Amino acid sequence: MELQDYETPSDKIFNDPIHGQIELHPLLVKIIDTPQFQRLRQIKQLGGTHLVYPGATHTRFEHSIGAAYLAGRLAKVLQEKQQKEFEKKKEEFEKEKKKFQKEKDKEDILCVQIAALCYNLGHGPFSYVFKDKFIPKALELNPDDQWKHEEASVWLFQDIETAVQDIVTKELKDELKDHDLIFIKELIKGVDTSHEEWTATGRTMEKSFLYEIVVNQWNGIDVRKWDYFARDCHYLGISNSFDHQRMLKSARVCEVKTEMKNGRNHICFRDKVADSIYDMFHTRYTLYLQAYQHKIVNIIEEKISEALLAAKDKSTKLSQAVESISEIKTHISGTEEVDENTRTNVLEKFTKLTDHIFEEILYSTDDELKDARTKLQDVVKRRLPKCVGENRISQNMFENKQLLQ
């Protein structure tokens, strides 16, 4: 029985403040209901930004659901437009049409939605504060060997994979083959669709455009950004001129010819939405200028990172999380397959850590955490360092990564 012929249970409706009422496939709901995903309720999308912008308390949880919804919409739009193209030029594209229909379209859409949903699973407390400020110092990583949260996301997806498949119906479980699970993991990690060699194994090169929906390494235009631009602007109280709906309607798959021997299928947009693309990147610039790189936000997040570093060896939860990330990096760089028990034990230590570590340290009475506690008290009481100056980074300095550390 094929997935498109099987009547699945009705989709669940979520009332989202950004996208309105959205429907999600029952399998996505099963993933949402796992402890691994529910943990994202306790991780703020914008780290310490809520301490400057009081409304910015939204989390990775709702962003992930919004991204999954947009991923499904974009995938469906691309599928429908391709089908129309094939119908118009049926004889000319008969072979391509058969090739396109060999791998089930609905299965592709479901895989893309799962990847968008699970992309953020590997984030630590305060999102990028943990990833970019704390972990590099805690593990003493060099600039070329930074921690990627996508690595933990893939591990966590593998961890919930078995649990979810044990619950879903047999018919649906039979439709998610091994190559689909590989495809989902590749989507989470990201694939360079412009690379001369096609390295992905989850889908063939003809479906390269599918790898640009969740993590677009070709031009940076993907549904994750569409969701968090709209969501962040909403909760920050910053006006948003970017209209992702217009982009959705104009998207289509085109074979783009390059210096490579064969063209590659990419997601492209009509020339008439060029202004929307400009608005998208201008919105990103505005968010970085007014919120993401706000000088007080940067100071607060630096203090939070310093507090976490001071507590690293004194807090069991924190030290175990750092240890688990080190183990994940070690296993990923190795060649041996990680067994299920090892993965579960490592992830159990990591998933206990959420934004709640802030309050745990702040209200602790442990003398060993005094230094970390004082740093967080400085944040709460606004005893922050003053900005005494700034220096513009030239192109030459930017090219030398060591100068930026």
Q: How are the SSEs placed, and which strands pair?
A:
Blueprint: E1 12-16, E2 20-24, H1 26-32, H2 35-38, H3 60-88, H4 94-102, H5 105-118, H6 128-138, H7 149-167, H8 170-175, H9 178-189, H10 223-236, H11 244-250, E3 252-256, E4 264-268, H12 274-292, H13 295-311, H14 316-333, H15 340-351, H16 357-362, H17 370-380, H18 395-399
Antiparallel strand pairs: 1-2, 3-4
How is this structure best summarized?
With 405 residues, the protein is mostly helical. It has helices at residues 26-32, 35-38, 60-88, 94-102, 105-118, 128-138, 149-167, 170-175, 178-189, 223-236, 244-250, 274-292, 295-311, 316-333, 340-351, 357-362, 370-380, 395-399; strands at 12-16, 20-24, 252-256, 264-268. The strands form 2 sheets. It has a two-stranded antiparallel ribbon.
Give structural notes.
With 405 residues, this protein is mainly alpha-helical. Helix 3 packs across helix 10, helix 5 packs across helix 9 and helix 13 packs antiparallel against helix 17. The longest helix has 29 residues. It has a two-stranded antiparallel ribbon. The protein has a two-stranded antiparallel ribbon with strand order 3-4. The protein is globular. The protein has 18 helices and four strands. Keywords: Coiled coil. InterPro entries: dGTPase-like (IPR050135), HD/PDEase_dom (IPR003607).
